[in-house]
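Changelog-linked ticket: pyridoxal-5'-phosphate example.
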Amino acid sequence: MIEYENLGKVNRPFFEEYKKDFAETLEKGWYILGSKVQKFEEEFGSYIGTKYCTGVASGLDALLLSLKALNPEKGSEIITPSNTYIATILSIVQAGLKPVLVEPEIRSYNVDPARIEEKITSRTKALMIVHLYGRPCDMDPIMEICRKHNLVLIEDCAQSHGARYKGKLTGTFGEFGAFSFYPTKNLGALGDAGAVTTNSEEYNTAIRRLRNYGSDIKYYNEIAGYNSRLDEVQAGFLSIKLKKLDEINAHKRMLADIYLKELKSDFIKPLKDDDHFDVYHVFNIRHEKRDKLKEYLLKNEIKTDIHYPVPPHKQKAMKGIITENSFPISEEIHKTTLSLPISYFHKEDDIQKVISVLNKF
Ligand SMILES: *Cc1c(COP(=O)(O)O)cnc(C)c1O
């Protein structure tokens, strides 16, 4: 059986270092907001190339606290893609703001820059983009729209650690870069974790306050904040794994190249070009008979996944929240997309086997 994912196997190369680091934290007896969180924040900020980085409890919180730090007037609208994981949209809803969805491009799966401006109103405050599957959005037109309409840019980088557009890392384009270190992400912890990158001292101070009960000094609360802190234990693991992030991404890119080269053209494959350095959090193909294809692969001992089976605007949870209900491009993607095995633990042989089975479909 070729598994879709196996986190035990992904993390095996780090076990010895993890055990040592965990023992250190255990002995030290300091578990919340200590030197390991500070160290990881410095390392991740310097990897991404922003002045500041603040660890938080999850990717959802990284998005939510970014919006809270921005603190727009009530009723403000945030433009975001219709083709994303629901967390992106939930952060807007939880911040008390209105999500306004924009269709993706059918070939890149990312927000279509040409469809953004028609959604801008006098209430639009920010653009929250998602570098879906680890492919950077088309940043030139997006930055131009933000400048022209004076919009704040928030990047959902939950799937794009290390991805670059024209050589520039995702998480450095916007006022905020929101990262998730959920275990399956390219930089994954052994539990929930996240971070916000920014070049703004003001926003960074706000996020540090918000994550810790709105407090700068213990027991003195400036604002009504949250409990959304990155743990020392997770920060220690993340510092260790960060050293291998480029290697993890290179491995996934190498596997993706095999798929791109050898899969027959019956399958719609991801785009590849020089402007987009894609880190393949997900490697998807599309096919009209997606469900049959998934079943066929499983019969041939190959597990796959679907990102995602139901688009956000069709979710029960979004009833009354997302009022527009026609997003045909998103729906087409959700109906036809299939995610193939592409984990750090997969070998070239695994991918060759998947390809040979697929090419007989
Ligand atoms: C994983 C993910 C999130 C949420 O991250 P969590 O750490 O699970 O809260 C947000 N947006 C996207 C696009 C994601 O893939």
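Closing comment: Example verified and attached. The chain has two domains: 7-103+110-242, 245-358. The first helix runs from residue 7 to 11.
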